[in-house]
Amino acid sequence: MALPADVDGVPGGVVIGYVVFLVVVAVDGARRAVRAREGAGFRRPLRAPLAVGLGVVLLAVPVGGAFAYEAARDEAVEEMLLDRLADADRIVAGLDGRPFGGTTEERYRRALGIYRGLAEDHAGSKAADRLPGSLDAYYKSVAAPYAAERYCDAVTPLKHLRTVPDTLGAAARDRLGSLRTWPDDRLATSLYECGAAALGRADANEPLSELLRTFPESDQAAKVGPALRAAIDTRSAALKGSDPCPDVVELRALGATADALPGDEVDAAPLRAATDRAVERGVYACGVDEFKDADFAQAAKTLNDFARQYPGNDKRDRAKDIAVRAEIAVERPSAGRSLPPTRSSSSTVELVVANLGPGDLEVLYTGPTTGTVNLKDCPSCRVYATKSQGDAACRAGVGKYPTTTLRLPAGEYHFLYKRATVRNRADGAKLSTAYRYTDCSFVTRGTAGLGPT
Fold first, then answer.
1. C-alpha closest to that of 282 among 234, 322, 249
2. Neighbouring residues of 86: CB distance < 8 A, sequence distance ≥ 6
3. In terms of Cα–Cα distance, which of 280, 291, 360, 293 is closest to 324?
4. Each residue's pLDDT tens digit, 115-170
5. Tens digit of pLDDT for each residue in 311-338?
6. Rounded to an integer, what distance in angstroms lies between the CA atom of residue 115 and that of residue 112?
7. Which residues have a Cβ under 8 Å from the Cβ of 248 and sit 6 or more positions away?
8. CA 323, CA 287: separation in Å to the nearest integer?
9. Which of 36, 135, 195, 411 is most deeply buried (CB count within 10 A of its CB)?
């Protein structure tokens, strides 16, 4: 009934029943012995020693059986613990290659709990003796993204492995050996590789900052400054290429990364200065490239921002000219066929620009030369019912209206009229030195008129 040995031992009722049975057998044996002795007297003196010997043997059988059973029970416990260890190992093996986190992390932690229980509650067992191998497999399974060189994916699982010694407790920690520090260098490498691969994007800031905070004396931390410098130099050189705008974005991100790095491990000041210089060059190059790509609205914004942000740059005036031509080209694409010329001819045409409408007026022009002119509001001006009425007012004389006179090289020009109260209007004209021109801007259901007077 007792066999095979069970982990929990023989049920208590069986033990009690067996003891009662032994007592009954002993009593019955004693009774039979007394009766036999009374009937036989002392005629057979050898029976008593024989009975004693047999009694000792019969008593030795259950005692020996109890020891043998306990040994079998211990073996059953060992098998049970080994099965428990095997279950945890199967959990770990089944998680190989899965992203760390969520249910995967929960299952890893469940296996870790089994390992901890074996180390703390069954320290002398065979299963506990095999823990170093299981823990080694656990570490390698969790760190699989690192082995596959998926460094960004490896950061979180490696950070988990650094917490394992504290999670396991003192008994299990003694079985970790070199695994205690096993994740450190791998985590430092992952943080560096993940951040270095993201240089030029905001994604680089967190891993590189964490590397410098967590492993400031590591070889990987020493690489951060040179990697930043190389990235800045690469993007700076690329500004001379055919598509500088993305490099400007990345240079700005590199500057932000340099500013975000903690401590004194990286001297951010020269890196930031180099980035700022490259960005200044790059913004201008980007605006010119946007113009050439016919993205006129964005080119005007980029170059106007450049002129405002870098007033001391020697390309500021050139940037403003290109921005003016780009803004005109938004409404009149033919103006954007080429960049504005850098020099103009000496022959000039006189152009009087007059504001015959309500509200301030800004006139942008580009041709052999490029520029803008602003005219004040005309409070007395009215909105004309028809364009012919505006033309008539222009021909009647512009002396009573806000005016300015431009002297421009002869050639073909494009104009853009901007007034807050009406939609922008673009126009064009070919100016000749044979005429003096008056350009009247007035408000009707249309806009300005341009013609010789």
1. 249
2. none
3. 291
4. 888 888 777 788 878 888 888 999 999 999 999 999 999 999 999 999 888 877 66
5. 999 999 999 999 999 999 999 999 999 9
6. 5
7. 239, 279, 282, 283, 285, 286
8. 8
9. 195
